[in-house]
Specification:
Layout: E1 3-5, H1 7-14, H2 21-33, E2 39-40, H3 42-55, H4 58-71, E3 73-74, H5 79-88, H6 93-104, E4 109-111, E5 125-126, H7 128-135
Parallel strand pairs: 1-4, 2-3, 4-5
Helix pairs in contact: 1-2, 1-3, 2-7, 3-4, 5-6
Length: about 140
C-alpha cells in the first residue's frame, strides 16, 4: 500500500509523542518492510525539521531527518500543485498540500491522526490503526 505520511505522524515518530509514537512507527516500519518507501511531502519534512529543532536541537533535527530519509521518499511538489491546493478550499492549507501531494504521487492513502481534516481529499485518509489493519490483511 502506497502511503503518504502526514506531518503529525512524522512528529509522533521524531518526538516520540506518547501515546501515538508506537502506532506511527509501526506504520512507517511495516511500510518499509513491505518494500514500499513511506512517502513524505516536502513541506511536511521542512515542518518536521523546524519543530524537532525547536523541541530538541538542530543536531537532533538533522539526525532525525537523516533517519527518515534513509527509508522514506520525498514526493514532488510544484507550482501547479500549490494552485490546486488553494482550489481545494480546505480549511487548512497545509492539509490541502498533503492531499494534493498524495494525489499527484498516486498514493493509496494518507496516514494521519486527523482524518476529519481530509474529508474533501481526493485520497482517503486513515488513522495509523486503520492503516495497519489494511497492511496486515
Amino acid at each position: 500500500m502506497r502511503a503518504l505520511f502526514d506531518t503529525n505522524i512524522l512528529l509522533d515518530i521524531g518526538l516520540a509523542r506518547k501515546p501515538f509514537a508506537t502506532a506511527a512507527m509501526d506504520c512507517f516500519m511495516e511500510t518499509v518492510a513491505l518494500g514500499e518507501p513511506p512517502r513524505i511531502a516536502p513541506h511536511a519534512l521542512a515542518t518536521f525539521y523546524y519543530i524537532v529543532a525547536q523541541a530538541r536541537s538542530r543536531s537532533q533535527a538533522d539526525a532525525s531527518v537523516s533517519d527518515l530519509l534513509a527509508s522514506a521518499e520525498v514526493v514532488a511538489f510544484d507550482h501547479e500543485m500549490a494552485l490546486r491546493s488553494v482550489a481545494l478550499g480546505f480549511g487548512d492549507f497545509e492539509d490541502a498540500m498533503i492531499a494534493v501531494a498524495a494525489e499527484a504521487a498516486e498514493m493509496d492513502c494518507i496516514v494521519t491522526r486527523n482524518e476529519s481534516d481530509f474529508v474533501a481529499s481526493p485520497i482517503p485518509a486513515l488513522r495509523p490503526e486503520a492503516f495497519l489493519k489494511k497492511l496486515r490483511r
